[in-house]
Design a protein that fits this description.
alpha+beta; 9 strands; two-stranded antiparallel ribbon; 3 helices; seven-stranded mixed beta sheet
């Protein structure tokens, strides 16, 4: 599902927050990074179809990137990465979104390997990069509090962004489909 709008992000002015400080906050828009180094041609479309059930999505270009932990002694498969801008049909708390994405990773047969010497096969990894919170009503004045309505918040645990994440966010911010 595609839509015809742009996000109006000013990447230089992003506010950072630790995810744990926003757990109960209602989220209306989100940008996530998807990644797969195993059967990406199967699992990326599956994840995108599931995300589309939550609202309207817009996609960045998919990038193929080498695993930055690969070495000559231990080569690793390349990752396919893509950013997704999702406008939620119904606001969800950040905690609900995190659980939804963990469940989606499981639906994509994600196995979290614990052996550090083993080459990890990642069918689907979903990382929350940015969120936009719902407007809050001020009970004293019945006026909207604007601090979070026009500002995207970057998840501090994801910043600084990896090169493919920054490129995907920039593409989503300046283009409309």
């Amino acid at each position: 599902m595609m839509y015809n709008t742009s996000m109006h992000l000013n990447l230089a002015m992003l506010t950072q927050c630790a995810p744990e400080t926003l757990q109960a906050q209602p989220v209306v828009e989100i940008i996530v990074a998807l990644g797969s180094n195993y059967q990406a041609e199967k699992y990326l479309p599956l994840a995108l179809n599931c995300l589309a059930t939550l609202g309207q999505i817009r996609l960045s270009t998919a990038f193929q990137n080498p695993d930055f932990t690969a070495t000559l002694e231990q080569p690793k498969p390349d990752y396919t990465n893509q950013c997704v801008h999702l406008i939620l049909a119904t606001p969800m708390s950040l905690q609900q979104l995190q659980q939804t994405f963990k469940n989606l990773e499981g639906d994509c047969n994600r196995c979290r390997q614990t052996d550090s010497n083993q080459v990890r096969r990642v069918t689907m990894d979903i990382d929350i990069l940015l969120v936009k919170l719902a407007e809050e009503e001020n009970s004293l004045s019945n006026k909207s509090i604007s601090k979070s309505t026009s500002n995207w918040i970057v998840m501090a645990d994801r910043y600084p962004f990896k090169a493919h994440e920054a490129a995907g966010i920039e593409e989503l911010a300046v283009t409309s489909v």
